[in-house]
Design goal:
Layout lengths: L4 H7 L9 H14 L2 E4 L7 E4 L2 H9 L4 E2 L9 H13 L13 H10 L4 H24 L3 E3 H6 L2 H10 L6 H12 L12 H24 L5 H6 L2 E2 L2 E2 L2 H32 L1 H9 L4 H12 L4 E6 L3 E3 L2 E3 L4 E5 H4 L34 H15 L3 E6 L4 E2 L8 E3 L1 E6 L4
Parallel strand pairs: 2-10
Antiparallel strand pairs: 1-2, 3-7, 4-14, 5-6, 7-10, 8-9, 11-14, 12-13
């Protein structure tokens, strides 16, 4: 059943809609066609404009002085927004790269930028490929049937991030739990609790862990990203505790959940489109475009918010100063005006102008790493994958921010490494 425009708008503030691809994309299609810039008044949320067309989102991303990340960078309930406002006033709020604007954003982004440039990626690639091999081998050890998300996909990218940060593998379990609780705060299976206070507890646990890391790296600097963050200076002064912890949090969480979602969603897409799996087997040279298509198809980051710094227009609609806009990336990545047959999964799609990594000054810092991880995993898996099928019903995470498959039961045949 096709939703009304009002029903479609409300879906953007409903975490369960993101767990149902058909429902979500039916809503987004209605909005793109009939109300691409649509005012949403969802119960429990402050109102916002839903922006669903690729061109309008690009225009907003390009003008980072008119459309600001602060004070509402992510969709949250009115209650959570108020808690965040009070914490900002107290100077104890999470301030990651997605929360802040220039000039702070430019200065803080530079701290980690060198760790994601091509030279650094080349140095990290052997470790990434070693870990990809380890987790394809793990599929062999599991005996031909597993929950791919829970037993493979969530583990591999986190080990990569731990390697980049220079954190010990003994901390793996703690980091996995915290990242899943943070991004799974709307999902009853993943969250720590249902209240905003319990969500804050997750952040405080992150902060406590990384405060220990900061103290250790300042006392004994090492050659890793954790040390670069701990010892960074702005105007001659070290970052304060919350800015330092915030930097760790965005690297650890964004570098983990988004990539694991893409890998799991990418495998599901290949299972559900066996012609494309056969095509990729026959032509491994398609892997770079296949990776981009998996990223477009899954779009693990569902939205970011912007606030208008002045009266303006978006898509012919008048936006007033102070009003918030939700940028719907899954919608942009299915926009019929940009993508030929957007609901077709095509491992050879070219061009592929997806916005899964954003655009402009807030373009994802770790995009090159994410691409390398996805590519390394499937370059290891596809030549060894003799058969694969679903062994149960897949489930997606209920979220309004970051997510993808939560469970992907599969039956498969993977050959041992040569």
């Amino acid at each position: 059943m096709t939703p009304s425009v009002e029903e479609a708008g409300l879906a953007l503030a409903d975490p369960t809609a993101y767990a149902d691809d058909d429902r979500l994309h039916a809503a987004l299609t209605v909005l793109r066609r009939h109300a691409p810039v649509h005012w949403v008044e969802a119960p429990g949320y402050d109102p916002f404009w839903a922006v669903t067309r690729h061109a309008d989102i690009m225009a907003i991303e390009r003008d980072h002085t008119l459309f600001l990340n602060e004070p509402r960078p992510l969709l949250a309930t009115s209650e959570q927004d108020e808690i965040n406002r009070r914490r900002r006033e107290q100077g104890i709020a999470l301030r990651t790269l997605v929360h802040i604007d220039d000039p702070d954003h430019r200065v803080l982004r530079a701290i980690g930028a060198d760790w994601f440039r091509p030279r650094a990626m080349r140095a990290l690639e052997p470790r990434v490929r070693e870990l990809a091999r380890r987790y394809v081998d793990r599929m062999v050890e599991l005996g031909g049937e597993c929950d791919f998300v829970q037993q493979v996909a969530v583990h591999y990218p986190l080990y990569v991030i731990l390697s980049l940060l220079g954190l010990p593998e003994s901390d793996y379990g703690r980091m996995l739990k915290l990242t899943r609780e943070l991004f799974g705060s709307s999902d009853t299976d993943l969250r720590r609790g249902a209240t905003p206070e319990e969500t804050i507890e997750v952040l405080l646990d992150f902060f406590a862990y990384f405060k220990e890391i900061t103290e250790a790296r300042r006392a004994h600097p090492t050659d890793d990203l954790a040390s670069a963050i701990a010892n960074a200076r702005v105007d001659g002064e070290p970052l304060n505790d919350f800015d330092t912890a915030s930097y760790y949090v965005i690297i650890a969480t964004a570098g983990h959940d988004t990539t694991s979602s893409t890998i799991a969603g990418g495998l599901r897409a290949l299972i559900e489109h066996p012609d494309q799996l056969d095509r990729l087997r026959a032509d491994p040279g398609l892997m770079p475009t296949a990776v981009e298509e998996m990223i477009r198809w899954v779009t693990p980051v569902k939205e970011f918010m912007r606030t208008a710094a002045a009266d303006c227009e978006v898509g012919g609609v008048r936006i007033r100063e102070g009003e918030a806009l939700l940028l719907s990336y899954p919608s942009a990545n299915r926009d019929e005006a940009v993508f030929d047959d957007p609901f077709r999964f095509d491992v050879g799609r070219d061009p592929n102008k997806h916005l899964a990594f954003g655009f402009g000054v807030h373009y994802c810092l770790g995009a090159a790493l994410a691409r390398m991880e996805v590519r390394a995993f499937f370059e290891e898996l596809i030549p060894r994958l003799k058969a694969v099928e679903l062994a149960g019903e897949p489930e997606n995470v209920a979220t309004t921010f970051v997510g993808g498959p939560k469970r992907l039961p599969i039956r498969y045949e993977v050959t041992p490494a040569a």
